[in-house]
Amino acid sequence: MLRFLVRRSLGALVILLIISALTFFLFYSIPRDPALLACGKNCTPEALEVVRRNMGIDQPVPAQYWEYMTGILLGRDYAVGPCPAPCLGYSFVDNTPVWETILDRFPTTVSLAVGGAAVFLTVGLATGMLAAARRGTVVDKVLSSGSLVLSSMQIYFVGPLAIALFVYQLGWLSQPRYVELTEDPAGWFAGLLLPWCVLSIIFTANYTRMARSTMIEQLQEDHVRTARAKGMARRTVFFRHAWRGSLIPIVTIFGVDLGSLFGGAMITEFTFTLPGLGRLAVESVTNTNLPMLMGVMLFAATAIILCNIVVDAVYALIDPRVRLA
Amino acid sequence: MVALVAGALLLTGCSEGGGGGGEQEGGGGATAQEPVPFAGAKASTGPAEPIPGAEAGGTIRVLQRDSYAHLDPAQIYVADEGKLAALIHRRLTTVKMDNDGDYSVVGDLATDSGTRSDDGRTWTYTLKDGIRFEDGSPITSADIRHTFERLFADFVTEGPAFVQSWMADDPDYRDLLPGGPYDGDHLPDSVLETPDDKTVVFHFEKPQNDLPYALGMPGYGVVSRSKDTREKYDRDPLASGPYRVQSFKPGKSMSLVRNPEWDARTDPARHQYPEKFEITFNHQYEDSSKRLLSDTGENQRATSFNNSVDASTVPQVTRDEAAKARTVSGYQTYVAMYAINMDRIKDHKVRQAIAHALPIKSVLAPYGGSAGGELAGGVISPLLPGHEKGYDPFGKLKKPGGDPAKARELLKEAGQEDRKLVFAFRNDDESQQEAVAVTDALREAGFDVQRKELPTDTFYDRIGKVDNGYDLYRSNWGHDWVSASTVIPPLFDGRKIADGASNYPHVDDEKINSEIDRISGIADPEKAATEWFELSKYIIEDVTPVVPVYFYKQMQISGSKIGGAVYNNDLSGIDPNKLYVKK
Amino acid sequence: MTIPTTPGREAAGPAPAAPGDGPFLSVTDLRVRFTTEDGPVRAVDGLSFTLERGRTLGIVGESGSGKSVTSLAILGLHDPRTTTVSGRIRLGGREVTGARERDLERLRGNTMSMIFQDPLTALSPYHTIGRQIAEPYRKHTGASKRAARERAVEMLAKVGIPRPRLRAGDYPHQFSGGMRQRAMIAMALVCDPGLLIADEPTTALDVTVQAQILDLLGELQQESGTAIVLITHDLGVVAGAADNILVMYAGRAVERGSAAEVLGAPRHPYTWGLLRSTPDLDSDPDEPLRPIPGTPPSLLAPPPGCPFHPRCAFPPRVAGGPGRCSAERPELPEGRGAACHLTADQQRAGWSAEAGRAGATGSASVPVPADGGADLLRKEGDR
């Protein structure tokens, strides 16, 4: 296990280095002067020089990259403010270290991702397994086609409709918003309930379909038949023997989904005006806030890679044939 | 002073005219606007006149689209931050709107709007007693001196430049105090004099009769000398107004709480009713409009400082009497116009043809129609003194869809039928809708239109180039304070044609240039206002470098538990200082 | 053997029964029909047989002849939504057909259990061997976790797995093929079932390992008196292991008899074909094996009359003419006999002619070592 972790972490580090180098050189090669954007309307050549120096972009790109990478480990000090390690750069648009903003936005994204994932995983697996257990019956058909209909819905369509109906019209749910879990757990739950449900709409269908098909596949496995031949009850066969194997493809997709959700659920965040990482990324693009964009991208990449490592570790938990090395 | 860029509404100067609350429409009442008067010590003494029925306490939620880019007053220029500044930063003067909707320039930190002497070359201010920063330290003339001296530092690039330029008598003002006060250098007494803790004296080369207006700009808000952290001040400024920043998460949220060091007795224009303002960002107009219109739950105690009711929600709001009662509306400072490149279209008849051809109603339509603006005949805003209501030199108010027949006729007279016309426009949704209508109308009038679609965020950079290669493009302008002196000189002074300058049509007319110099020297604001308007008539009718299209308006809505919502022309929108939470 | 038996288990366990105690399993007129999109499939069509305690019945036939379907029917494992099972199956005096699912669950793994062809896929990859063996034991005896685990270790030792306590914690993929099948047997026998159905138990294994497994089954049967249904397509397998043999074709029994009878003097032309296509140690290695011509019939639309007639060379010799084979279904007589229209004499003579043609001696030799299997077992277990 330790060897696995060390190996995978080293691999992840290499991938992140490549990603960071790529994004860095790509961003800084675009024909737009971030200093000019930051310099403002009363900009003079002297002022521009100051801004360039403050931003650290008066140096050649490789030197900037070196500074960037060492900054992650050691932190940096900008004229506009300190940037303690891990310094993922400094956002000159809103005068904050990138890491600080990411840390500030991350809880929203995590809350949205984990809560949403809990909903779509539970609902998806439950309906999928129910459909598999009742294969060919009306229940199966309703669940299968229902999930298909839902999956064709889009968040930007369902979201505003749901708000208009459940919040504005009926008043059953409170205005979607994010409050810190530690500050007000009930408010956290109430504020995120609608986003969770809407976010999970598009995912649930996937998991329903996947759970159904893998479950049906598993139920036809020889070892499942063996379990029945041993006299195991249907329920035991279903949950102890068949379910386990059906998890593997689900965990694979779930890892990818969760990883990308940790990078930010842009459409959901925009639809419900939740201040998460996805929105941060889009804002950074529109503001030409390159350090922020770079930071978010690296962060999201790290999240996805970490999720992948966790997924691989989970494989080993589920399936003893998988060896971690 | 600066063109209106997509997304960032520029802060404005002040203005007169019934900027009332409720459904009352601000602005257009008078046929010719009166200048906003400079008030004396009495009007400058606090506390401010209480808002009838106002109660203290409660939290107001504020839904904003754009996050605040700057908190350092020296870097504040756009309207979003201007409204925030109205709550947290005080300056020497400010524009007060009283309960009757009358405006005056009053002393804010100073005891009055300023004592003019030496024909307007010298202005003297005396600071009030009991004025303090949020850390409890008193505000002295040393802080005021520091506030102005640091404007010369290289890092200050965003705020207004009027006072600095006047001090240096040169648009390139930075040489007066290179690097600002941080190396121990100071402005000489011949420019800025602070003989004691309470007295501040400005000396200028030329008469500066608009100084009390200029000093009321949020960009001249006071900065603590001892707590100045230069660039870092932008993140963490010291408040002097009734509220202070408790927390700020850029792009996400800001909490404003009461500033206990603010003394109501020193402030003639501000209140401190709510306990707290909880501001959240990234609410698109549609989102904030729908929330506030729904008036459910927490939305009842919510408003927006800067978001308008979005075009798609306007009909719902106007149909619903109860919702309409929760709105305020009025003019914004901007005037929308089309600039004609005089370097390329030299024949006045062709420019007149363009003026007649433009379908100004269709231009306004994508921005919400009458809720988003009022069709314009001239370039002087209804908020400015001297504005004449109903001025319509090309008869466009009568034919807002354009007059292609007249345009064709003019082109024929000029012998320029099938005249090629390069039309540049922005690529955002509204601008594209607008461009379609404009292209059709120009083609109908006989122009050979060539469309050039430009990215919205660099539009002004592109058209700001002297050899931009376009014939016709949208340009907007907003005054900085209630005087046409912040409109006509920057737009039409032929000696100021340069890359990035605001003379977008590149008009260089001897009469305009000499008139600008003459009217700038007139000390009486009322006389000046009349003269500016006369000059604007000459410009539009006899030169026609631009075609005015509409005056920007906006409608804002608040939740039902929000009291004191009134439209303030000086702030171009709802006045945050007057808001309270109804019990 | 020191076996810590669970209390209450001994009384319930079937005592080693002498052959001839009366049938422990009796199957009467079993019919299994699948509903498919193309129409009903008669997978088993009127099958009857009996099996006594301590005896082994070999069911032989090509794939698709209904062998495995029969075994699943006995266990009641067919999906009732797509399968119709009729006829009677009695096990230890109890009716199996029509029993409620819960009652069936109590029988499965307890009174009757099953070994499958490929132990790699038939064992769950997600649970340890020990747990898989203990699972039915706990279910059927209500034993504690610890007791069940002890029982699993004991069973592993019994089937010849070295260091059973250690290996009980292993997963199937950590076992070799033969060991896995031993574990499978341990699992099937953990509750001392009266009936063990072994469906192609050696097909997936090496030839040497095959023999060991068959020996093991034989030993365990000696010990416990379990009745075994040994299903295989390999006549060599049944030769050494089965007491009686039932040959199946197209869902029907076509020949029945003792192992010696069926292998030594087969009566049905199909059985002849099967034997002919089995390699024989005594036969001339240059003599090519002669597979049965044609393909097994479609069970969707089985041929009328004798289902084997399209592949059979003998209809011309049948009394009543070749038309009889395609019109009239031959019955399988009680006891020793074949379902064929040839007369008993023709049947006997037919095989002699066949055997002569093949150069065979008349009795199938089976490559099963009579003893010495234990040594091989140990070697196998040590790896």
How would you describe this structure to a colleague?
The complex is a heterotrimer of chains A (325), B (583) and C (383). Chain A is mostly helical and 325 residues long. In chain A, 74% of the residues lie in helices and 3% in strands. In chain A, strands 1-2 form a two-stranded antiparallel ribbon. In chain A, helix 5 (98-133) runs antiparallel to helix 10 (234-262) and helix 6 crosses helix 8. The model of chain A has no long low-confidence stretch (mean pLDDT 85). Chain B is α+β, with helices and mostly antiparallel strands and 583 residues long. In chain B, 23% of the residues lie in helices and 19% in strands. In chain B, the strands form 6 sheets. In chain B, strands 13-17-12-16-14-15 form a 6-stranded mixed beta sheet. A 5-stranded mixed beta sheet of chain B has the order 8-9-10-1-11, with no helix packed on it. In chain B, a hairpin with a 3-residue loop joins strand 8 (243-249) and strand 9 (253-258). Chain B starts with 58 loop residues before the first strand and ends with a strand. Chain C is 36% helix and 19% strand. Chain C is built from 15 helices and 11 strands. In chain C, a hairpin with a 2-residue loop joins strand 1 and strand 2. The longest helix of chain C is centred in the middle third of the chain and has 18 residues, at 207-224. The radius of gyration of chain C is 21 Å and the shape is globular. The chains are: A mainly alpha (325), B alpha+beta (583), C alpha/beta (383). Chains in contact: A-B, A-C. Chain A binds chain B through residues 39-44, 46-47, 49-51, 54, 79-81, 91, 93-96, 101, 104-105, 160, 163-164, 167-168, 171, 174-175, 177, 270, 273, 275, 279-280, 283, 288, and chain B through 2, 67, 69, 75, 77, 154-159, 161, 172, 174, 230-232, 234-235, 249-253, 280-283, 287, 290-291, 294, 296-299, 457.
